[in-house]
Amino acid sequence: MPASLAPVQSAEKVKAAAAAIDALQALVADDMREVNKTIIDRMQSPVVLIPQLAGHLIASGGKRLRPLLTLASGQLIGYEGRRHIKLAACVEFIHTATLLHDDVVDESKLRRGQETANEIWGNQASVLVGDFLFSRAFELMVEDGNLRVLAILSRASSIIAEGEVLQLTTANDLSTSEDTYLEVIAAKTAALFAAACEVTGVVSEQGEKVEEALAAYGRYLGIAFQIVDDALDYSAKQATLGKTVGDDFREGKVTLPVLLAWRRGTDDERTFWRRTMEDLDQQPGDLERAIHLMGQHNALTDTLERARHYGAMAKDALAIFPASDAKQILMGVVDFCIERGY
Amino acid sequence: MPASLAPVQSAEKVKAAAAAIDALQALVADDMREVNKTIIDRMQSPVVLIPQLAGHLIASGGKRLRPLLTLASGQLIGYEGRRHIKLAACVEFIHTATLLHDDVVDESKLRRGQETANEIWGNQASVLVGDFLFSRAFELMVEDGNLRVLAILSRASSIIAEGEVLQLTTANDLSTSEDTYLEVIAAKTAALFAAACEVTGVVSEQGEKVEEALAAYGRYLGIAFQIVDDALDYSAKQATLGKTVGDDFREGKVTLPVLLAWRRGTDDERTFWRRTMEDLDQQPGDLERAIHLMGQHNALTDTLERARHYGAMAKDALAIFPASDAKQILMGVVDFCIERGY
């Protein structure tokens, strides 16, 4: 049923995917409690609006996939220290800061099924609390004191911002190439996934090969994750996605499903895409027509195929590590990122 | 002529103040050329909108007071290394990032006499390029590799964000205390002035007393600078200030001149302040009446007196350093910050 708002993934696979994230959470449950404690502890400020606003987003039931990856990487490589706890919190702070700024930039009203912070407290507070969390992330890193970790995470932060700006300049431009699309998502999403995994390798001091493998796993996983996210914007059920279906469409964000449907479209269809995505002249029924066209041209199913390609690369990046529960679970996380319905 | 838009400072003192900043620029002219080169070099990105937008603000003729202070601190303490060049650029990047976000938060249309970046490229790009510059600042610090410098500047960044949020929560609230006002400006402005001076002390490794003295000088100077800035918003000529006179008034920002006029006002005047600052119900002539009331109650002249108090503390903080050209000039910079007409 590609022409409807139903998920493109099979219900069975979605269920298996959910089991994978449960297994990941179970694997690192003890460490994650400490991470959550650190997050709550370090988002405090005498300026009460800061923990109030940050807490709204942090307590809103995100999966905390990135810090989970930081912790699971530790199990994969047999790291026995405690430094990854603080770094996992730091990764989540950077992620939260970018979410706050993204929601301002995208004028989003809903995230994870709740009103966004900018809807409740306004853009001003969201921008500034994002800045605070970002600075606080650096304070946490400095406390850890590893200069290579600092280099990796400060570089990742620059790359994220570059990716977001690049995305802004490609919005409403249907001539965007698939390469540019990949450049945007590699920067805005995959860079932090990669850093989240890599930093555990750095503090465990097991050498370059281990760090590279972890970074590659994170990077490919992040690319797959974002590609699927972009597909879900045209296919997920609003209740499970926790955001409004069609957000990207309404903003004229040129993501992979749009790129494929546009490239495979007739002249008449291209006129439709130009009006809706470039001129942002949208009428009732346009989102449904967009989804219908994507179905007709296999744009959503092929988008997921592209994601599976990067997912396979993520799994192969783990080849250097011996079999273990952690490895099995991290393989499952790849499936989760691809087959998830939310 | 306190009841007019004319400067509260005497023309003679304004002229002497300008000479002080000229002397500061001459003192560190060679180093500053390298700082400017580093700034231009490190704001580059393959995403062209980034150097374009950042360059607009960076090239707009700001005084670059903070990096100048980083460099002059080096001369004051006889530092002969080159590490302060990169740190000065880093301080200016942090400052520029906060300006970009401030202009979004304040919805400013003019800065330094030019259209703001958010007016030209929109809020979205300003938020994201601010994030980029902020991340880039951390990359520069990491390259320097001094963990204490990293701690000082990441802490300063958190404090700046805290101060900005606190300012947001005190806007339109005439019951704000002078203590809270001071807390806001110490955080949003003085923290970076302090860090800008302190970091040179850290890399020159001359001990805690030197670092403390430099930090104290910067902190008191920053407080004086911001108090004067808040007075100038009701008194400077638009052409020299390079921003619109009355911006704070229009936003209902409760700064020291307002606090003093409010506290010294009659019941009738307080009704006026409540309507204009708390309800933001403003009519033509209201700004002129606000300035008139400030004149009647010596609110602007007493605001400058408060600034002089912190200026004196800044000068005294330099007591531990022997007489030198640099010391003389840094003393003069205090006068500049207080007596400047812009």
From TrEMBL, chains A, B:
It catalyses: 5 isopentenyl diphosphate + (2E,6E)-farnesyl diphosphate = all-trans-octaprenyl diphosphate + 5 diphosphate. Its EC number is 2.5.1.90. It is an enzyme of class 2 (transferase). The keyword Metal-binding applies. It holds the Pfam family polyprenyl_synt. Keywords: Magnesium, Metal-binding, Transferase. GO terms for molecular function: all-trans-octaprenyl-diphosphate synthase activity; metal ion binding. It comes from the Bacteria. GO terms for biological process: isoprenoid biosynthetic process. Its cofactor is Mg(2+). PROSITE patterns: POLYPRENYL_SYNTHASE_1. Belongs to the FPP/GGPP synthase family. Supplies octaprenyl diphosphate, the precursor for the side chain of the isoprenoid quinones ubiquinone and menaquinone. This is Octaprenyl diphosphate synthase. It comes from Gimibacter soli.
